[in-house]
Design a protein that fits this description.
The structure holds two protein chains of two kinds. By secondary structure, chain A is an alpha/beta fold. Helices cover 33% and strands 26% of the residues of chain A. Classes of the chains: A alpha/beta, B mainly alpha.
Chain lengths: 356, 310
């Protein structure tokens, strides 16, 4: 990213300087700069190039550049951050006002691109008179399959989402969770390379949620790329720690939660340390320049004391703490970062509680 | 959930997925099934069937009476009634297997057809927009024009089911009532005319239905627009023709234009077209073409902007 665009982003108050250079293995983000590609390289599965989207006078997406090549990527952000707009553009349901969205080199707006993409929208408005099986079968026919192949695929995906025994009921009688499964089934029909799932876990009970998480992991293991938007941050954390965080139409950060947390230099990390001789260790830690505060408090339910340290520059702090532990032969039973959760990171990034 | 990770890969499919045009036909089939699930549709189809049966039996009756009472007269309530006296009530309908028979039949079917299309438009297209099910369709490998084509095909099927298909049955019946060899040979162009009339109706009313459904979406406003097009405009144009004495005003009547185009396909005598006076056929063609063009332009504009913003 160029210095000029970094300055722009800082001025906009959306992207903080610390998170500009996170470039993980599978997701690359570039804001305000295009990237040269060698002519022989394989086209990325999903590529956003300087994409902006206006709804009238409202800017929904602002110069987003994003590249996905595989694995599971979580998309998080507050309401109105532009998540759904981004997903719909990836599926060719929306046209960018500026920039280009492509799927393996084909414009996402082109119907051919949708052969590679499965989309599970957040809405669940179906033809309520149809049964779940019939709906999925109709969708299979729309994919261009023969009658026999449509039957086979319908049964396969219904089985896969755990709906084969309940698919003959009319859609109007389905619970929210069953609707989610049917939506997922129709997205899986044509065995797409890229699965775009908008809030796939909402309304699903804990057991069903676990089943779906396992399914997503199995799909990713098959080599599919999943882009999942969700407000269920805990569930998303179980699935992947690879996230794209959106704020006010821009990609605020991208990478693993740990990577993002590490880049948040100006926010102190909170770490709970369960160690022998806690008061002595607290005194030692206070001597470190990285440590801002140390709190010795009884560990909940354990009857012993633990230390909660607030330190800036987490990387440096952990290095120094390691040295102290070795020098003083500390018996460290547990070392737990308290704010590496998606909630906490979102809270830092979005300037709020992290609630989405 | 059953462990079926490999189920989709079981016996890998070696075929090639058909193109989006095939998906349009699949969409049309699904749309028709949805339409036929509505009881009100069956009620309207029954009404259309009544109109058909009226023409079917009346055509038979006219021939039967004409043959039976060619020379005689019958006494009705003590009054001698001639054949002409009995059959003259049917004369405006021209129930004699001519071009006007089929033209009149389709004209009268139009009353049911407009109601069917108003409902079909809101059910098939309007609901997709207002209920938000469009993202499901457009997330599949079809383009927006393919979606519209699918809906037009479904509407076209309904139009032809109510007009062209029964008109062809009337043509077949007429042949059986008269000397069938000479009738079918001499009036083969009538069959082509009926098909042409059906084609004109399909090509005009399908985009018109889709365009109005996209515009207003819900059933009640859709019905109001169609009533305006097929009831108010004909009344207005009729009164304007009479008061200004200019047949050009008749061109505001969309259904009348379609009727004229249909009669032109059937090669009917323009002077016999009711009500008189009528604009020439070419003007009706031009006006119909303008309607189709306007609908397509509107749909194109909407398609460019069709974005799922819910």
């Amino acid at each position: 990213m160029s210095e000029e665009s970094k300055t722009d982003l800082r001025r906009a108050g959306v992207v903080r300087p610390l998170m500009n250079s996170i470039v993980p293995n599978e997701v690359h983000v570039h804001q305000g700069g295009s990237r040269a590609r060698s002519p022989n390289s394989v086209e990325p599965l999903l590529l956003f190039e300087q994409v902006s989207k206006w709804y009238g006078s409202v800017l929904a997406l602002n110069q987003v550049t994003l590249e996905l090549t595989g694995g599971i990527t979580g998309l998080v952000g507050a309401n109105g951050a532009g998540k759904s707009t981004l997903l719909r553009m990836a599926n060719g349901q929306l046209k960018p006002t500026l920039g280009r969205v492509s799927v393996r080199g084909t414009d996402a707006w082109d119907w051919k691109a949708r052969r590679l993409v499965g989309y599970c929208p957040d809405i669940d408005a179906f033809y309520e008179d149809l049964s779940g099986r019939r709906f999925v079968w109709t969708m299979a026919r729309l994919c261009g399959y023969t009658r026999a192949e449509s039957n086979r695929r319908t049964e396969a995906v219904l089985e896969r989402v755990g709906m084969s025994g309940r698919a003959d009921r009319k859609l109007r009688g389905y619970s929210k969770g069953m609707r989610q499964r049917i939506k997922l089934a129709q997205a899986l029909l044509h065995d797409p390379e890229l699965l775009i799932l908008d809030e796939p876990l909402s309304g699903i009970d804990p057991i069903g949620r676990q089943e779906l998480l396992e399914l997503f992991q199995a799909l990713a293991a098959q080599g599919k790329c999943l882009l999942i938007s969700s407000h269920e941050l805990e569930a998303l954390e179980k699935l992947t720690n690879h996230v794209v965080i959106m704020a006010r139409g821009r990609i605020a950060a991208v990478g693993t939660l740990q990577q993002i947390r590490e880049m948040l230099d100006d926010h102190p990390v909170s770490v709970r340390i369960d160690v022998d001789r806690p008061r002595e260790v607290a005194r030692l830690l206070l001597g470190l320049p990285e440590v801002l505060a140390v709190d010795v408090a009884p560990k909940l339910g354990a009857g012993v004391e633990a230390i909660v340290v607030k330190a800036r520059n987490p990387k440096r702090f952990f290095e120094l703490f390691g040295q102290i532990a070795v020098e003083h032969q500390l018996n460290v039973r547990q070392l737990e970062p308290l704010d590496e959760s998606a909630h906490a990171i979102l809270g830092y990034l979005l300037g709020g509680s992290g609630r989405t | 959930m059953a462990q079926t990770d490999t189920l989709l890969r079981y016996r890998p499919w070696r075929g090639t997925a058909r193109g989006p045009l095939y998906a349009s036909t699949a969409l049309a089939r699904a749309s028709l099934k949805l339409l036929f699930r509505r009881r009100i549709m069956w009620g309207l189809f029954a009404l259309a069937l009544l109109v058909f049966f009226f023409f079917f039996y009346a055509q038979y009756l006219v021939v039967w009476i004409t043959n039976l009472l060619a020379t005689d007269s019958v006494r009705f309530a003590g009054i001698p009634v001639t054949v002409r006296g009995i059959t003259r009530f049917f004369e405006p309908l021209a129930l004699n297997g001519t071009a006007h028979t089929f033209g009149n039949f389709i004209w009268y079917q139009g009353y049911v057809l407009v109601i069917v299309l108003a409902l079909a438009g809101s059910v098939l297209v309007g609901n997709d927009f207002s209920h938000g099910s469009l993202p499901f369709f457009l997330s599949k490998p079809i383009g927006r024009w393919h979606y519209i084509l699918g809906k037009c095909l479904a509407i076209g099927a309904v139009i032809n089911l109510l007009t062209t298909f029964p008109a062809i049955l009337l043509w077949v019946e007429a042949g059986l009532l008269y000397d069938w060899k000479s009738y079918y040979l001499d009036n083969f162009t009538l069959l082509l005319g009926i098909i042409g009339y059906g084609l004109v109706l399909t090509l005009t009313l399908s985009p018109l239905t889709v365009a109005t459904a996209v515009l207003v979406r819900r059933t009640a406003p859709m019905a109001m627009i169609w009533m305006g097009l097929f009831v108010l405009l004909p009344m207005l144009s009729g009164s304007l023709v009479e008061s200004v004495d200019d047949t050009g005003w008749r061109l505001f009547d969309v259904w009348n234009n379609l009727y004229l185009c249909g009669l032109s396909c059937l090669n009917a005598d323009h002077a016999m077209v009711r009500p008189q006076p009528q604009p020439p056929y070419w003007q009706a063609w031009l006006a119909t073409g303008a309607v189709v063009g306007a609908c397509l332009l509107y749909l194109r504009k909407r398609i460019q902007a069709v974005e799922i913003v819910s």
